[in-house]
Fold:
Amino acid sequence: MARSTLSASTTSPKRPTCTAATNRVLKYAKLKPNMVELDGPIHTVGIDNFTEAAYLHRHDKTYYLTYSRNFPEETAYATAPSATGPWTFRGKIMDMNKVVKTIHQAVIDFNGKSYIFYHNDKLPTGGEYRRSVAVEELHYNPDGTIAFIPQTAEGPAANPAPGCK
Structure:
């Protein structure tokens, strides 16, 4: 079973730390401070066509749940006012790979920009069990939706820290 960690915060009682065990059904549970034991019941979340690879992040005051949907997989997302929902489906943000049937992602912020890391089959001899890691810049539209992200061979432009310029 694939495991993805949904971690909104490990220090704020207002934003609980959660874990999710996934494969066709999204589930989460609050963790105790030791990050090993459950601190309450396991919750099931109904996400249409959810497959696996749940990843939670927050931008401004909105929570974003990116995940793989359908099979072969594409990357989609939903938004919510809290880390536990209720979730509103927003759409597809990345197409499926041409050879590899899965696509798993993570979203990070670095030097004032957002990036999505994912896997594909683009390196020589790439395939289902020979995946390569890729990264693209992720853009939020003025209304908070995520713009569609095409997979590129180039990746994002350089974004050095101020001290490295």
User: Anything to note?
Assistant: Confidence is low (pLDDT under 50) at residues 1-15. The domain at 2-152 is CATH 2.115.10.20 (Tachylectin-2; Chain A). The two ends are 43 Å apart (CA to CA).
